[in-house]
Amino acid sequence: MKSPMSLAVLMMFALAITAPAPAAPQAPAPASAPPVSTAAQPAATAPVSATSTYRISAGDVIEIYVWGDERLQRSLSVLPDGSFAFPLAGTVMAAGHTSNEIEAQLSRLLAGQYKGVPPQVTVSVRAPSGMQVSVIGKVHSPGTFSPTRYLTVLDALALAGGPTDFADVGGIVVLRNVNGRLTTIKAKLGGLLKGKAGDGDLADIPQLYAGDTVIVP
């Protein structure tokens, strides 16, 4: 006859054998990938041209680009009469206009080739070769100059070495061609060049444009 203690040990051993094994830990589910957007991406658009105040002159080298049509990319010189020829647009008058004005003009002329929708056109000045001014008369180094920026009469006199001792600084004038007619503009630099400048003298210093001639008597 087995003792009560032996029976208890046997019962505990039986329970250990028949007990279900612990469940294995489940691996965490992989994180789902973020959904891929099927929305159409916006198409690249042509940049907006910056506003330019430079007025194109005959002899300037300009670059023209029609967005979406590389065949119409051109680098050309403005002819002596101030015009240039462009495919599908014909002859365009450029002298006296800014690059933004030329862009608008070309876009309008080319609209018929694009089903009535004006294309985006970019015009830039690569070389302002036509920006020339002349200084003649009683200056130390008269001549024709090709600056890369707009000049005033004072700037032009500085390029020409300044007036001579016998120059009439009160009689300096600017000769300008306006629509085929020559006009004269009085510079009023007498007081300024003699060290007696007033506020009015500083405001009256003329700015020069392509083709202007400064005459120092």
Strand content: 15-25%
Q: Over the alpha carbons, how many angstroms does the gyration radius reach?
A: 41 Å
Give the biggest beta sheet.
5 strands, mixed
Count of distinct strands: 10
Shape: elongated
Strand order of the largest sheet: 7-6-10-8-9
Helix content: 10-25%
Average predicted local confidence, pLDDT: 78
Head-to-tail CA distance between termini: 149 Å
Report on this model:
This protein has 217 residues and is of the alpha+beta class. The protein is 20% helix and 23% strand. A five-stranded mixed beta sheet has the order 7-6-10-8-9, with helices on one face. Strands 2-1-5 form a three-stranded antiparallel beta sheet, covered by helices on one side. A two-stranded antiparallel sheet has the order 3-4. β1 (61-66) and β2 (74-77) form a beta hairpin. The chain starts with a helix and ends with a strand.
Q: What is shown here, in short?
A:
The protein is 20% helix and 23% strand.
